[in-house]
Amino acid sequence: MAERAGKPLMQWLRQPGVLAAVPVTLFLLGGFVGPLILVWWYSLMPPRTFSLAQTPTLDNFISSAAGSYYISFGWSLYLSAVTVVILILICYPVAYGMAKLFGKWANLITLLVVLQLLVSENIRLFGWVLFLLKNGIMDGSALYLFGLSVPSILYTVPAIVLGLVYVYLPFMLFPMVLGLSMVPETLKEAAFDLGATRMAVFREIELPLSSPGLMIGGLLTFVLALGSLAESKILGGQRVIMIADDIESAFTFAQNWPRGAALSVLVMVISGGLVLLLLLRLDLDRIMGRR
Amino acid sequence: MSSNTDRPILELKNIVKKFGDFTAVDDFNLDIVEGELFTIVGPSGSGKTTIIRMLAGMDKPTDGDILLRGERINDVPANHRPTCMVFQSLALFPHRTVGENVEFSLKIRGVDKVARRKRAEELLEQLHLPLSYYDKGVNQCSGGERQRVALARALAFDPEILFFDEPLSALDFRLRKTLEKELKDIHRMTGKTFVYITHSLEEAMVMSDRIGIMRRGRLVQVGSPDEIYNQPNDKFVAQFMGEVNVLEVDKAGEGRVRVANSGIELAAHDMGADFEKGFLVVRPEVVRIGDNAAEMTNKLSGRLFNEYSLGSRIQYQIRMAEGATWVVERLRDERYSGQLDDEVTIGWQPEDAILVAE
Fold first, then answer.
1. What is the C-alpha to C-alpha distance for residues A164 and A167, in angstroms, rounded to an integer?
2. Fewer CB in a 10 Å sphere around the end CB: N or C, chain B?
3. Where are the alpha helices (DSSP H) in chain A?
4. How far is CA B187 from CA B35, B130, B213, in A?
C-alpha cells in the first residue's frame, strides 16, 4: 500500500481515460496552446522585431492604446452586438418552429442551413456581392421585371451586417433549437392551466428555460463576429475597418508582429472577459434544474 | 359521504374524442357532483388521460359537450377555466423555488408579494412541508415533497375543481399509501370537487366517493366503492379488482350452473331469470380451505401448490385436476395446517360468489 500511495501520479496516468486523452491533449498543446503562448509572448517583444529572445516590454500595448485602434475596436464590438441582436430576433421563431412545430420538416431546414457551410465563406460572400452589385442579380432582375432600379447597399455598413448575420446564423440557430427543445410541453401546459396567458408562459417558462441555448448562441456568434474579417472586406469594401483587419495588416503589410500580437491579445481579453462575465451571471445548473 | 346538490358541477354529454382514425373516447357520459371525490379508473390506453385533458381544457372533444355548472365550456381554454390539474409528471417549474412554484398562479393574477408569501406559507403548512422549504429548489425535494408542492401549487389557484392525472404512480408503495390518505384528508378539509384518474382500482377504493371504470374509451360502470366491489357489472370490472377466481359457466338448472369444459355443477345465488351463460366470480377471501371448507355448499378439490404470506393474510395457490388454478386467502389464525402438495378441499357459499355477464 505504501508503495502505491507513493506513486499517485503514475497511478493516475495509468487510468484508461487519461491514456485515451493523451493524443488529443498533445495535439491541443501543440496546435492550440502553443501558438497562443507564442502570440502572448510576441505581444511583449519590442515593436517591429521578429526575435522572441528579447527583454519583454509593454510598448505595444501602450502605443496601441494611444493610437486610433479604438475606432476599429468600436466598430467590431458594435457590429458584433448588432449581429447578435438581429440573429436572436431572426432565429428564435425559426428555432421554435424547428423544435416544436415542424416535425420532420425540421430536418430539411437543418439540411439547408448545414449545406451552405460546405461552400467556403469567401465564395458565399462573393455570391452576395454579385447579388447586391449595381446591375447585379437583384438590381438587374428588378430593372428587367418591374423596370425600377434598386439602390445597392453593397459597400455599406448594412451590407457588412447582412454578411455577418448570414454567415453566423447556424451558430445561433442550432444552440437555440437545442435550448428550446429542452423545455417540456407539460411545463407550458401547467403554467397555462394555472391561468397564465401565452405571453406569461413565454416570459415565465419558455424564455428562462430556453435561455441556455440563447446565451450559448449569443456568445458564439458574438465572439465569431468580433474576429471576423471577410465580411467587412468583401461586402463593406473597406468602408469600415474592423479590428481583425488591423491585426492582419499589422502582421502582413506593416510587418509589425509584436503590434499584431498585442491587438490579438486585446481581442482575446475582451471576448474572454465577456464570456466569463456572462457565464458567472448565468447559473446554467439552476436554469436546467440540476440543483 | 359527499354533499349533494341538485345540479352536477360537471356534466359530460356524449363526449367523443378522435385522434385521426383512432377513437380514444367514445360516447362518454358522466355527471360529477359538487364536492365529491370522483375517480376514473382504467387500464392504460382506456382513454382516461384523454378525458381529464379535455376536462382541464388542454384538448377539445371531437363531439359532445362539457358543461361546468350548466355552461358549455368546450371552447374555453385552460387558462380561463376555474379548474386546475396536478400532472402525472407534476410539471413543477425547475427554475423556480418551492415558494415561487406555489405562488405562480397568484403572481399571474397580480397578487402582491406579501400576500402571496402568506398564502404560500399557509399551504406549505397545510401540506406538512416545513416553512424553510419556501426558498428551496424544487429539484432538491424528495418525491413525496414534490408531490405536496404540486398539490399546494394547484390549491393556491383556488380552483372549483381539481384534476389529478395519476400523480402518485411514480412513488413507492408506502409513500403512495400515505399520500392517498392525505389527499382524501385534503379533500375533506377543502370541500372542493376532486376528479382523480388512476389505473389502480385499489387506489381508487381508498380515496373515492364514487368510481367510474373505463374500458376502451367508454365507462363500463359507475358507483360507490362498495357497489363496485359487491356488484361488478361484468368480468372486466371483476378482474380489475385484482386477483379473483373467474369460472366460465352456463345455466344447468334453477339456481345451478355448469362449469364450462368440465361438467362440474355448482350452486349459484341471485341468478337472473334470463341468465343463460356468463362468469362466476369468486373472491379469494370467501373461499375456505381444508376442514373449514367441509360445511360449504360448493366444494372442489385440488392440490395445494404454494402459499404466500401477505402480512395479515395467507394466500394459497391451488391447482385443480383439469388445469385451473384457484387463489384462496385466509386470515393468519384460520391458516391451513397441512403441507404443500396436500390434496385439499376448498369451498364457498353460493351467496358469496357473483354471477356476471361477459
1. 5
2. C
3. 2-6, 8-13, 16-28, 34-42, 59-66, 69-96, 105-115, 121-132, 137-146, 157-181, 185-193, 198-201, 207-226, 230, 243-251, 257-281, 284-287
4. 8, 21, 21
Q: Within 13 A of A82's CA, how many CA atoms are on the CB side? A: 15
Specify the residue for cell string 431572426: A90
B264 within 8 A of B310, measured Cβ to Cβ: no
CA distance A136 to A126: 12
Query: What residue type is assigned to position A40 of the chain?
Result: W
Chain B contact present for A49, CB below 8 A: no
Flag if B58 and A193 touch (Cβ within 8 Å). yes
Is residue B354 classed as helix, strand or coil in its secondary structure?
strand
The partner residue sitting opposite A209, judged by closest CB among B56, B83, B95, is: B95
**Set of cell numbers at residue B38:** 370522483
Question: CB of A195 within 8 Å of any CB in chain B?
Answer: yes
CB B131 within 8 A of CB B172: no
Residue A14 pLDDT: 85
Confidence of residue B1 (pLDDT cuts 50, 70, 90): very low
> Domains in chain A and their CATH numbers?
1-42 (no CATH), 61-287 (1.10.3720.10)
CB contact under 8 A, B108 and A195: yes
Backbone angles phi, psi at B272, to 5 degrees: -65, 155
How high is the ipTM of this complex?
A: 0.83
Please, are residues B208 and B196 in contact by the beta-carbon 8 Å criterion?
A: yes
Residue of B nearest to A182 (CA): B94
Residues 6 or more apart whose CB falls under 8 angstroms from that of B237 comprise B213, B220, B221, B228, B356
Alpha-carbon distance of A267 to A243, in angstroms, equals: 8
From residue B82, alpha-carbon distances to A36, A287, B105, B160 in Å are: 62, 30, 12, 6
Contact A60, A259 (CB under 8 A): yes
Mutate to test the interface with B, among A188, A194, A210 (most CBs of B within 10 A): A194
Residue among B85, B91, B153 whose CB faces A187 most closely: B91
Q: Does A185 touch chain B (CB under 8 A)?
A: no
pLDDT on residue A291: 43
- The answer to whether residues B241 and B43 touch, using CB atoms and an 8 Å cutoff, is no
The radius of gyration of chain A's CA atoms, rounded to the nearest angstrom, is 24
Q: Which of B106, B104, B54, B61 is nearest to B78 (CA)?
A: B54
Domains (range + CATH), chain B: 10-234 (3.40.50.300), 243-356 (2.40.50.100)
The pLDDT tens digits of the residues spanning B68-118 come to: 999 999 999 999 999 999 999 999 999 899 999 999 999 999 999 999 999
